[in-house]
Amino acid sequence: MTDTERFFCSDAARSRGDALAGTAPHGTVWILIEYREGWPVNGFQGLDLDPRTKTLVSNAAQRARARILLIRRPGRRHCDGANRWAVLRRETDGALLQHWGTWQRDEHLAHVVPALTTRGTTDLPPVILVCAHGLHDTCCAVRGIPVGRTLSGLWPDMVWECSHVGGDRFAANIVVVPDGVYYGGLDAQTAITVIEDHMADRIRADHLRGYTTLFPPQQAAISAVLRRFGPAGRDDYTIAESVRHGRGWHIRVKSRSPRTPALEVEVMPHLTPPRQLTCRGPADSSAVRYEVTSMRRLGRDGAEPGS
User: Fold this and answer.
1) Parallel, antiparallel, or unpaired for β 288-298 and 208-211?
2) Is residue 55 exposed (0-12), middle (13-18) or buried (19+ Cβ within 10 Å)?
3) Cα–Cα distance measured from residue 172 to residue 191, given in angstroms and rounded to the nearest whole number
4) Any idea what DSSP says for residue 98?
5) Which of 128, 188, 209, 184 is closest to 161 using CA atoms?
6) What is the pTM of this model?
7) 305 vs 38, 144, 242, 262, CA distance in Å?
8) How far apart, in whole angstroms, are the C-alpha atoms of residue 110 and residue 222?
9) For the segment 240-255, what is each residue's pLDDT rounded down to a tens digit?
10) Angle between helical axes of 188-199 and 138-154 (0-180°, round to 10)
């Protein structure tokens, strides 16, 4: 690379064919805080807020294992009116909960804390978060901002730009919450298709990074099943069992479909060669890639058919 060439991690990842499956961070609770001014590189922690309130929210988020993301509407920023905050949660039974409020003074953000232990509302549409945190990584702005503007033209009440969600090299990244689904490697057109499919409860493997309720090997197993058998609903496949086997995993996947009642998927992790994984990364580093080495059908009782 010459001195005049600029490195973009998402271009490099696409050229290498970096695998998306198994790259979604684990989590089931999100705190969203609308902040219309510039976002610090470290997001919420870098905001110039009342220290007591910030500590209160940070400690509560840590106890709840919640991720704090800054949000704003795509396009021109309007400074009038109160900012919004939200606590979103996916329960173990699949319930999708949302609790929204507003804030004008820093102290108002303290209301986030009791909301973390309040059940919330179940009948709200999902929130579509598009990572556009350019100060954290250039690709998030270059690829994320156009995607956010395109989607907001179709779903203006559901789409927000958000701060860093992880996996900069997969920009543009979208997270649908509280469903807990990560998508990556998107542009404006593919993002429309992905969200249309998601809203129809038809998830495809093509741009799927993973479900945040699952750990990376499990995410890779579900993605492989979707790629083999076609799109399916968010809860059509569940993980029945994950067993460590040598360096890899044997993962049993249950299905609602009578065609594939159960599957056993073998997943093997591999370290990639050291590479520059982010635009601002100071040094090369390796990532874990999850390879599905086999997949076999099981009967409804978990045994191989005919056994």
Assistant:
1) unpaired
2) exposed
3) 9
4) E
5) 128
6) 0.94
7) 58, 46, 20, 10
8) 38
9) 999 998 999 999 999 9
10) 50
